[in-house]
Write a structure and sequence with these properties.
Oligomer: single chain
Number of strands: 17
Strand content: 25-35%
């Protein structure tokens, strides 16, 4: 048996709460860009008041678009490739005891950080384990302070997948109930092109060519970020890999601990890896 302690890698999802302004033209989707890259260059556009975005729209967001305070990307046809798909549009609760609160207030941030993940879980389906093992995640956008002052109070929840550091994965088709499907993790799971932590490793969605896969998660006890794997993590990941192996006495396996930033953002579990 080969025990492999993996360096902490990028989490499958962004793991951060985004409060951003987003402009949607509310009308006809723009044509698909000629390039099929999943991370197009951002193109500055004039700042104009955003309209309430439509639901079930698709976008070609770059990673920087997803983490920027605003994005002016227009929708593209959902029949083609995209990197973000809107699954919920709602109204912000900005009225407290008869007084309006700012769109960037703690109350509004907490509403978005609570509502979009809840809607996301219902949208993509699956149990908590399946969602942890998938590359699907959610980001959300709201009006800028200036747009809010003009009376806009919408928010938008999008599903994305972080393929690798600084890059969103290309998505296709409907993502509703994606993790309820039998092939859910085989399509949207976390996979690698080589043994994680070695040269040639690249994190990819499992629909792409791969040789390793994240196959389970193990909760990490305690409240402090672990600098080494607890025994429960090693035992849990080893047992999972053994159950999948052809030879219970000789098999490869590994685990991935969360980085400190991931731990502080709420990821208190380890990923177990095994050859696909």
């Amino acid at each position: 048996m080969t025990r492999r302690l993996l360096d902490a890698l990028l989490a499958a999802g962004l793991g951060v709460a985004l409060l951003a302004g987003c402009q949607d033209d509310g009308g006809k989707p723009e044509a698909d860009p000629s390039s099929s890259t999943a991370a197009p260059e951002s193109t500055p556009t004039p700042a104009t008041p955003a309209r309430k975005p439509g639901n079930d729209r698709c976008y070609r967001l770059a990673y920087d678009d997803a983490v920027a305070p605003t994005t002016h990307r227009k929708p593209v046809p959902c029949s083609g490739e995209f990197t973000a798909r809107t699954f919920h549009v709602g109204e912000l609760d900005t009225l407290v005891d008869g007084h309006l609160v700012a769109v960037d207030s703690t109350r509004v941030r907490e509403q978005l950080a609570r509502t979009c993940p809840e809607k996301f879980a219902a949208y993509v389906g699956g149990d908590e384990r399946a969602r942890r093992l998938s590359m699907l995640s959610t980001v959300w956008f709201s009006p800028t302070v200036e747009q809010s002052d003009q009376g806009q109070s919408w928010f938008r929840c999008d599903v994305i997948a972080v393929e690798s550091e600084g890059r969103l994965a290309t998505l296709r088709g409907s993502l509703k109930g994606a993790l309820d499907r039998e092939d859910g993790l085989a399509t949207y799971g976390i996979c690698g092109t080589a043994e994680p932590g070695t040269k040639g490793f690249e994190r990819v969605i499992c629909a792409e060519k791969h040789s390793w896969q994240a196959v389970d998660t193990v909760d990490i006890p305690g409240t402090a970020h672990p600098t080494k794997a607890p025994a429960a993590v090693e035992e849990g990941c080893r047992d999972t890999a053994r159950s999948r192996a052809d030879d219970a006495l000789s098999f490869d396996w590994g685990f991935e601990l969360p980085t400190k930033a991931q731990w502080e953002s709420g990821r208190h579990y380890a990923l177990c890896w095994a050859p696909a």
